[in-house]
Amino acid sequence: MEKKIIIAIDGYSSCGKSTLAKDLAKELNYTYIDTGAMYRAVTLYLIQNKIDIEDVEAVEACLPKIKIEFIQNEILEKCDTYLNGQNVELLIRSPYVSSQVSEVSTIKTVRVFLVEQQKEMGKAKGVVMDGRDIGTVVFKEAEFKLFLTADVATRTQRRYDELIRKNIEVTFQEVQANLEHRDHIDTHRAESPLYKADDAVLLDNSILTREDQLRLVLNMAKKVIERINIQSEETIESTPEEKS
Q1: Can you give the residue ranges of every domain in the chain?
Q2: pLDDT tens readout for residues 13-38
Q3: What does pTM read for this prediction?
Q4: What is the sign, positive or negative, of the torsion defined by CA atoms of 83, 88, 94, 96?
Q5: 31-34/127-131 β-pairing
Q6: Using one digit for the tens of pLDDT, what is the confidence trace for 121-174?
């Protein structure tokens, strides 16, 4: 039986991490886990319940009341994010959640709460997980790590197009300001700041199409999986048989 691995994809906002992770998981028949959606779901809960994100004790007290699930949408052939039984996939992508999610992600108790869940989800391996600290905190032992980046103009256009497709009214300037704000917070926060792991592959996808990027990364992943399986076979063959 082929050994499965953990694939960790980190990078800046709107670099297409989730798109790549979903495509990669589908090609490899792996499980995709959207960690960004988890932070967005917590942010939405805090907003809906009027909890001040500056009140750390209040935030910590509400965490046990939060249940996040990913449920397959058979019609759209994708997983939707559910918060306490409610489909919040569209709500968590809204500008008012985007404007606060980076601040919420800096709260240590929130990160600890979600990291524990993410580690549990990846125990069986065969997962593709994207976020900002997957290869540096959640799965330091991941067999394949990727760090995505792209220039700000490209990322802004991608995010703007995505929001317009979802009928969310926003200006290009608002999207760019939000991205730059989130970049600063993500890279300067005290708890698990965004940075490239030493053993991660750096990929600037500014000029890559979705198809070209998938083809490139899929080839990388398959080589890692092949190497892991060869090493496993060699270990088994080199193990002396037990004497009867």
Answers
A1: 6-222
A2: 999 998 999 999 999 989 888 898 99
A3: 0.81
A4: negative
A5: parallel
A6: 888 899 999 998 999 999 999 999 999 999 999 999 999 998 899 888 899 999
- 239: CB partners within 8 A, 6+ apart: none
Q: How far apart are CA 171 and CA 59, in angstroms?
A: 31
What six digits make up the tokens of 13? 């906002």
Q: Are 118 and 68 in contact (CB under 8 A)?
A: no
Phi and psi torsions of 188, nearest 5°: -115, 0
Distance, C-alpha 35 to centroid of its chain: 4
Q: What is the CATH number of domain 6-222?
A: 3.40.50.300
